[in-house]
Amino acid sequence: MEKGGGRFIGDAVLPAAAAQLAVHLRDTDNLRAVAPDRFPAALARVYGVNNQIHFAREGNGRTNREVVSMLAAHNGFRVDWTVVKGAMNDRISRQAVITGSMAGYEAMFQVITRPTDRPRATAATPNPGDRGPAQRPIHLTGEDSAYGPRVDGPRHRGPRA
After folding, report:
1. Is 124 exposed, middle or buried (0-12, 13-18, 19+ CB in 10 A)?
2. How far apart are CA 99 and CA 56, in angstroms?
3. Structural domains in the chain, sorted by start
4. Residue 2 β-bridge partners
5. Do residues 78 and 113 make contact, with C-beta atoms less than 8 angstroms apart?
6. pLDDT tens track for 39-80
7. What is the pLDDT of residues 6-33, one digit of tens each?
8. At 61, which helix (H) or strand (E)?
């Protein structure tokens, strides 16, 4: 898939990239286990990988920013997207594709990510409305866990009975 003359991740590596992102989120308990000083870099990794695994032609950037903003909010942080202009974000994204490095995203998120007064959710103090494992995001690692049910493929329509 292409946009603006640049290709997104190839179809052959999309499942591996999605699995990498899912493992990162699982291993960090949706970033809850990340130290506050490392949070912007961890959030940048989520944004960077998710930015490359586009599944539709339009709306991916807006959706990715909203997902990342919500993930930040649940962890006691705020992302100020007004600081980043579209051309800057596009340049950082292209550089990440060319180099395979998240350094540009990490630098960007160091600037745009700030702690809030809201306490961070932890495993002991879940996010408001979190009703436990059945309500947590589905992960793509191929096994059931506390983070959600295994996803078998495009026919998956919810938790297995």
Report:
1. exposed
2. 24
3. 2-120+130-135 (1.10.3290.10)
4. 7
5. yes
6. 999 999 999 988 888 665 566 788 889 999 999 999 999 999
7. 555 566 677 888 888 899 899 999 999 9
8. helix 60-74
